[in-house]
Amino acid sequence: MSTYDVIIIGSGPGGYVSAIRCAQLGLKTAVVEGRDTLGGTCLNVGCIPSKALLHSSHMLHEAEHNFAAMGLKGKSPSVDWKQMLAYKDDVIGQNTKGIEFLFKKNKVDWIKGWASIPEAGKVKVGEEVHEAKHIVIATGSEVSDLKGVEVDEKTVVSSTGALELNKIPKKLVVIGAGVIGLELGSVYKRLGAEVTVIEFLDKITPGMDGEIQKVFQRTLKKQGLEFVMGAAVQGVTTKGGKATVTYKLRKDDSEATIDADTVLLATGRRPYTDGLGLDKLGVAMSERGQIKTDDHYATNIKGIYAIGDAIDGPMLAHKAEDEGMACAEGLAGQKPHVNYGVIPGVIYTHPEVATVGQTEEQLKDEGRAYKVGKFSFMGNGRAKANFAGDGFVKILADQETDRILGAHIIGPMAGDLIHEICVAMEFGAAAEDLARTCHAHPTYSEAVREAALACGDGAIHA
Ligand SMILES: Cc1cc2nc3c(=O)[nH]c(=O)nc-3n(C[C@H](O)[C@H](O)[C@H](O)COP(=O)(O)OP(=O)(O)OC[C@H]3O[C@@H](n4cnc5c(N)ncnc54)[C@H](O)[C@@H]3O)c2cc1C
């Protein structure tokens, strides 16, 4: 039996970041991970592999659509799917090995196997029981199921299966127009599949700023993705490696079917806490299966904490990381704080979509007086040069104080541009603070400055 200050269960971005921070702060730390590799959903079957495929398929798109116009002539590259998957797997391997290296460097022990918590202060892995003053649950999430849809990871796949299909499907049906469905739908569209997205609601990417939702859907349609909106999927049947999806339109209850080679179920994820023994311990859970915690990530059982996808809040890797760090710092006696009002969300399609803070709809609901500063990438020299003029930056600021309340970007490198605004928001900046900051020319970030200028006396290049 080994004794630790902290044992963390799960090595995703919540768990591994927390472990490294614990070790840096002098706590004797171990991580239990049941998978063969470290890094959790994010590195193995989530953020990293999906971004690898988005990158390679985007390169193909550029070659097919923009190279000739830039004077780059020649045959477009053809797709070697096996090699593309091998490239993706290599990227995963480099990243997961990187966490192993960081664990060794920081003297974090990796206990291999699946953990349960027989009682506070004890973690059981196989036949061994380890002791710890503090236990942090970072067990993440799993794919939510949908009635009538059975995932076999061959014809009907979750995001995990969609990252390793045997071949590129001719017809792909995506159930759910959320981030994961649209990212993976884009990958297969670029690789030549006919892609239809079926969504229960009337708008894609629920919760996003309404204007972004509209422009984003229009952009994806232009790229060839088809949408069936306001449709409740009733079930999927499979025969001989083909699938038929039946759905009902909510507006008139009419039923229709659509055939596919592959169906991707992407209706969301739910917390994963199986096998931990939380019931027996009496750990309080929400109705949605999340572990309930206080502001310091403590559960109702002394010495047991929880972070990341397993608790409330957006299921995002960076949110899990921030909680992991804050939880560790709290255990070491510091007074950390995560600002949930400034957690960016990014969709890595092309163009990218990035948002932070409040949407116009939320501000209207609150009855808050606000102003909008908007700037189109068409007015940005760099974007025009790079065939990336689609989209805009929109900054929402308080009508009276000019304080930035939210920002929504659709356009090139939106996922990177958003962070300038996140930092500004952390400092409680006004739009004028951004507008008066000198931005290098020619960069995409000038569009952020122009949107900030538009909150005041006006953008220059509009
Ligand atoms: C296809 C896809 C794309 C995504 N893209 C993005 C993105 O671009 N950006 C972003 O921010 N987020 C993205 N996400 C979400 C992101 O992956 C999660 O929010 C993040 O991984 C959550 O981190 P976590 O540490 O809470 O849990 P996880 O990463 O889920 O890790 C939990 C780990 O705990 C282990 N575990 C569970 N139970 C036990 C046990 N009893 N004993 C031992 N080990 C256990 C699991 O094996 C797993 O490795 C994506 C997700 C998917 C599926």
Number of strands: 22
Tally the helices: 14
Regions with little confidence, pLDDT below 50 for 5+ residues: none
Q: What's the overall average pLDDT, rounded? A: 97
- Specify the helix fraction band: 25-40%
Describe the structure.
The chain is an alpha/beta fold and 462 residues long. Helices cover 33% and strands 25% of the residues. It has helices at residues 13-24, 40-45, 47-65, 81-106, 159-162, 179-190, 210-222, 278-281, 317-331, 360-366, 381-385, 414-426, 431-435, 445-454, and strands spanning 3-9, 29-33, 109-112, 115-119, 122-125, 128-137, 141-143, 156-157, 171-175, 194-198, 226-228, 231-239, 242-249, 255-260, 262-265, 269-271, 304-306, 345-347, 352-357, 370-376, 392-398, 404-411. Strands 1, 2, 3, 4, 5, 6 and 17 form a seven-stranded mixed beta sheet that branches. Strands 8-15-9-10-11 form a five-stranded parallel beta sheet. Helix 1 packs parallel to helix 4 (81-106), helix 1 packs parallel to helix 9 (317-331) and helix 3 (47-65) packs parallel to helix 6 (179-190). It is globular. The chain starts with a strand and ends in an 8-residue tail after the last helix. The mean pLDDT is 97. Residues 9-15, 32-35, 40-42, 46-47, 50, 114-115, 138-141, 159, 180, 272, 275-276, 308-310, 315-318, 320, 348 line the site of flavin-adenine dinucleotide.
